[in-house]
Each structure stands twice: as structure tokens, then as C-alpha cells.
Amino acid sequence: MESASQPNGRSFSSWKGWIYNFAFFLNGLLIFLLLFENRFVVPVWMQSLGRMHPLVLHFPLVVLMLYSFWILIIEKKESSKWNETLADTLLLIGIVTAAIAAFSGFVLSQESGYEKDAIFWHKWLGIIISVASIFWYSFQKYLPPWKIPAKVISVSLLVMLLVGGHLGGNITHGEDFLTAPMQLAVVENDKVTFEEANVYTDLVEPILEQKCISCHNAQKSKGNLQMQTKELFAKGGKEGTPWDTTKADLGVLLTRVHLPLDDKKHMPPRGKAPLTDDEIALLEAWIKGGSRFDEMVKSVSPQNPIYSYAQNVLAGSEAEEKYDFSAASPDKIKELNSTYRLIKSVAAESPALAVNFYNRANFKSEDIAALAPLKEQIIAMDLSKMPVKDEDLKTISQFTELRKLILNFTDITGSALPELKKLTKLKSLSISGTKVKLPQIQALSEIPALKNVYVWNTDLTKQEMLALKKSSKISYETGFAGDTVVLNLNPPIIENEDPVLSENTLISMKHQIPGTVIRYSLDGKEPDSTTSTVYNKPFPVDKNTKLIAKAFKKGWYGSKPVEKFFFKSTFHPDSVRLITKADLKYPAQGNKTLNDGIKSDNSTSSGKWLGYRDQDLQAYLYFKKPVKAQSVTISMLRNVGGYIFPPTRIEVWGGNDEKRMKLLKVLTPKMPDKTTPNSENMVFDFDFPSQEISCLKVIAKPLAKLPAWHPGKGEKAWVFMDEVFVN
């Protein structure tokens, strides 16, 4: 094959000629399309080419920058640093990749979701860089690298590459992408305190900035939704306002968040960090609370998820404080961490530790004392809802490095509150929902560093609360907005943490505010203030039961209902075998999942749900000795926004072994409609004549096509199951 020839008259190998001609063709086609841009419609097959733009754009950036820097360091013709053949190849690679990147970028820019003004300069700079680089290659003969014109071109190309790259970063990652770390450093150094924090500005908005705004900004507004200001966020996009409290799923924002990770409409999209369960709970609570932009964190009830999220995120000044103690042994921290006590660092590279306690039923006073080896490092301790007694405050007072102590809804009466005077560094104390008295609280003024005390839902009268607020030294948060405000009671506390009841377990409830009446129902109906059963003492249940309870008191609004489903489990299967394997995304604990006695919450990411989509869920449950059973209960999940629907058919088979089985019962669950609440733990009961059984078989068939009203219409639904109970 004959060699090709460049415009400058030099001959070069055929492969270089093909590459040069291809780049020249792409640039010519690009200029032609620019002239007729208003009439150009991207064909479907070409859209994939446009979406290759993020994959190829980095290559010409690196190659052309490398070539430009090389030109700048050449001082003379005889320089040993210069290799003409290698330089020629490097620039050739740069021009063809620049042409591909510019062409794919132009095609991508024709898609919806990009603001024309925002991408104008990025698009034109990309085209100019592509055209300029091919002209440079064509006229290398007249632009030797040791001469001033070549160096001027190198500097100009570097500037265009940097500016074009920055503008591209603004489109994909948000405005001022390159300078964001410096801005973040300023924000970190001026971290807002819990008392000054605004719910939207300091909690919600940072989540949107980290997880959402890169796709919803002035440069790139997917779905015509922009989030960079409150006004634009509230305005919404082509699907309307992002939230709607009249809908079961609270609107499109949370619907997209709850979709399966592999769904193309899931937000954030695949490849970007998804929202955590805590972040989703925060957004849900903010939307349910009215989506207010002016709400302050300190005005939120301690039972609100916003409050607990703020306590974890807004560390006050602890993260910035310099500590004079050394870090604890990682092995000791690991040793003292458990499933009911979490010890973690308050900030990266900080020796300070924070402790959170969980599981009220298993809590013992010794669990606090056991932390003594870390008392030099623990600066924050959260004992909310734990059965902490007055005598435990003496133990707590030994942790003299404490800056924050949370005792909300514990069993303290306040008689030992003076013990906390030993905590000379304590800045924040929360004793909401306890039985403390005014003199005991006032004595806290002797703690030199104490700045904030939270006393929601205590026995203090309005006059006593007003007296506290007059204190000039300590800020007391009482939760009252004024004398005419009627407050909602907090829901009752159901003390049974384990929803699986053994034979003699009693159900217990309590409320922290004296004089409160707890009324409950076991028939699925919401209790009222006059006819529903009054709770007086713990009571037993002898079957699967849905408990709904509310609190009532004169002068207060009734509480929101609290509900919990309790499962009765008489016969425990000795083993389980999954006939069909769960989907790799939701394997839970495999065979053990259906008989481990561990109920999952409604979170799809709990790791406790078996998920099936492409095949039926089929499982065998075995008993070493025959049991005389008359019912089977299956626990499943419905999450409409997450494509998790009830099965279309559930079968329960029983017999002496796998080969001798008979159909005991079949259920065809009702499918959700537009009005169905988004997420709920479903329970399916199968009653049949009492008989001896050594082996059970369960089959659940997923819905093949989601209904037309669903965002994923026509796609397969998921089936989620976590437990099977036999009685």
C-alpha cells in the first residue's frame, strides 16, 4: 500500500494516514453538524455513542497536556530531550481522541437535561481544541518546538484544556467543582452547633449536595429539576414537586430513592454513592413534618428521626477541639464493642470516642462500668431509652472527659443528678422524658462548662420552665413555643424488643409522662380515647398479634399510634433448605434465614431479607421429630416504590418427607394499587386441620409484570421473605 502524505508535505506510514484522515473526517462532520444544529435530531443508535463521552474525554486531556508540556521544555534544536517520531505519534493520538471526545460530547449535548447556556462554552472549547490540535499536527513542519510560536500554542492549548475540563466538571459534579475542597475546609472550620442548626440548611441540604446536586444543577438538570436553591428545589421538575404528603410514598423523590439499586430510575444513579438508611429516614421525617425551610433542630421532638440524626451529625465543637489525651488501644475498643454498645471515633484522626447504647432488654448497669478502660477518651455517651437508674449516675460521673451526655427517657428521678457536678467538662446534657425536678436541674449550674440542657417532656410546670429560661448561664430547651401551645404526647413505648414471643412472654408498655393513659387494640384498628382497652399491666398473647397503642392525657393531643407485630412460634424448624437460590443482591443468611427467629425491619438493605425476582421462592423446612401443627405464618415485605410486591400465589405443603407431601393451603394475596401504603411488613397466615408434620414446603411466586400505574410498569416484581413460623 502506498504511503499517505500530510498537508505539510511529509510522508508518513499508512496507519498514521488512516488515523489522521479519520480525525479530519470527524472534525469536518462536527463542523457540518454545528451549522445545522437546530435541525439535527440524534438517532437512537447514536445516543450510545454520545454517552461514551465521559469514557473517552480523559484520554485527549492527558495526551495533549503531556505533548504541550514536552514542547515547553525543549530549548534548542539539538536537544537530547526531543524525539520527533515519538512526539509525532503522541500528537496523532491526541488529535484522534480529541476528535472522538468532541464528537461524542456534541451528540450527548443534544439530549434533554442539559442547560444550553451552561454547556455552551464547554462544548465550543471542546470543538476548538479538537480543530486546533489537528491544525497543529498538519503544520508541525512550520512550528518547531524550540521556537516561540510553538510554545505560545502549547500554553494556549493548556489553558483551553484546563478551562474546558473545569467547565465539564461543573456540569457533572456541580459548580465550582475544583474549588469545592477549599470551600469545604472553610465550612468545616465554621461548623454549626446543635443549638444553631437549621433542619434544611444544616442536615437536608448537605445530603442533596453530596448525593443529588451533581445531576440537578444549573448546568445539568435531569428531569428539569434543579436543587441548588430552596426555591428551585421546591418548584420541582417535569414530574412536579419532589414531595407530596398526600401520597403513600411521599412523592417522586423518595420513590426514586427506594427503587432497587439496579433500576435505571434509582436515585442517585448506579455508580454514585446511594443514600444511607439514616439519610433516607431524615428526608422522610422532614417531608412528613411539612418540608419546612425555617425549622430549627432544637425545636424538634427528641423522638423525631431528625433529632437523632442531628445528634450524630452535628457534633457541636467536639470534632474541632484539641484533646490532651492519647488515643485508646484499637484492640480494647474492639473488645468492648458489642451488638448493643457501639464505640466509635467522633472524627477522623481524633482520639475522642462516643458511645451509643442499644437494646433496652439486655442493658445492665455493669455495661457502663465496663467502659472504665476508655474513660480517658470517651467524650460523648448516649443512653437514650435505657433503664438507667439514679445510682448509675455515680458510675457515669467517673467519665470526667464527657462533653455530651444523653439520658432521654431513662428511669432517673433526678435525686442523684448532683453527681454530675464531677463532670467539669460537660457542655451538653439531655434529660428529656425523665422525672427530674426543678431544684435538681438548677443545681446543674455549678458545672462550669455546661451550656445546654434539654428538658422536653419532664414534670416541670410552665412556671418552672419559664424560670429556667431566665437563666443567663445555661440555655434550657423545654420544647414549648408559647403558653397557648397544645403539645402532642409522645407515643407509648413497647418494651418488648423481640417480636418473636416464647410461650410465657408478656407484652409490656410504658409512658414517661405521669398520668398518661395508654389504650391499645389487638384487632388491627387504631385505638380511640374512650372505648379501646386501657393498659394496666403486662398481658400475654396466644397467637400472632398486631398491637396498636396510643397515649392520651387531658390537656394534650393524643399521640400518634405505635404498632408492632408479635409472632407466636411454637415449633422451631430444625433446618431449612432453599430449593431455589435467592438473588445475589439479597441473599440474607441463606438457608438459616427462614428459621433463625430474627425479624427484619422494613429496610430493604437490612441484609435479613431473602429476595427473589427471576424465579419462584421454594424452600423445605425440616423437623427431626414430627410436630402436630395447625398453622404456618410467613413474614414478607411490601415496598411498592422498591418494586417489592406480595407474591401472586403462596403454597404451603406438608408431609412426613419430601416425597410424601400434600397441599395444605394456597393464598392469592391482593395486589397493591395506587393508594396502597408504600412500605409494610406483611404477614400471611395458613390455617389447616391439625396434623403431624416432619417436613414443610413453601412456594412464593413473584409478580411477572408490574401494573401500568407503577413507574416500573411491565418489569418483574421482587418477593422478599425473612421468616416462617409454625404453630
TrEMBL record:
<keyword id="KW-0479">Metal-binding</keyword>
<feature type="transmembrane region" description="Helical">
    <location>
        <begin position="56"/>
        <end position="74"/>
    </location>
</feature>
<feature type="transmembrane region" description="Helical">
    <location>
        <begin position="86"/>
        <end position="108"/>
    </location>
</feature>
<dbReference type="InterPro" id="IPR009056">
    <property type="entry name" value="Cyt_c-like_dom"/>
</dbReference>
<keyword id="KW-1133">Transmembrane helix</keyword>
<dbReference type="Pfam" id="PF07635">
    <property type="entry name" value="PSCyt1"/>
</dbReference>
<protein>
    <submittedName>
        <fullName>Uncharacterized membrane protein</fullName>
    </submittedName>
</protein>
<dbReference type="InterPro" id="IPR032675">
    <property type="entry name" value="LRR_dom_sf"/>
</dbReference>
<dbReference type="InterPro" id="IPR019251">
    <property type="entry name" value="DUF2231_TM"/>
</dbReference>
<dbReference type="Pfam" id="PF09990">
    <property type="entry name" value="DUF2231"/>
</dbReference>
<dbReference type="GO" id="GO:0046872">
    <property type="term" value="F:metal ion binding"/>
</dbReference>
<dbReference type="InterPro" id="IPR011429">
    <property type="entry name" value="Cyt_c_Planctomycete-type"/>
</dbReference>
<keyword id="KW-0349">Heme</keyword>
<keyword id="KW-0472">Membrane</keyword>
<dbReference type="Pfam" id="PF13290">
    <property type="entry name" value="CHB_HEX_C_1"/>
</dbReference>
<feature type="transmembrane region" description="Helical">
    <location>
        <begin position="18"/>
        <end position="36"/>
    </location>
</feature>
<keyword id="KW-0812">Transmembrane</keyword>
<feature type="domain" description="Cytochrome c">
    <location>
        <begin position="185"/>
        <end position="291"/>
    </location>
</feature>
<dbReference type="InterPro" id="IPR036909">
    <property type="entry name" value="Cyt_c-like_dom_sf"/>
</dbReference>
<feature type="transmembrane region" description="Helical">
    <location>
        <begin position="151"/>
        <end position="169"/>
    </location>
</feature>
<dbReference type="GO" id="GO:0020037">
    <property type="term" value="F:heme binding"/>
</dbReference>
<feature type="transmembrane region" description="Helical">
    <location>
        <begin position="120"/>
        <end position="139"/>
    </location>
</feature>
<keyword id="KW-0408">Iron</keyword>
<dbReference type="GO" id="GO:0009055">
    <property type="term" value="F:electron transfer activity"/>
</dbReference>
<dbReference type="InterPro" id="IPR059177">
    <property type="entry name" value="GH29D-like_dom"/>
</dbReference>
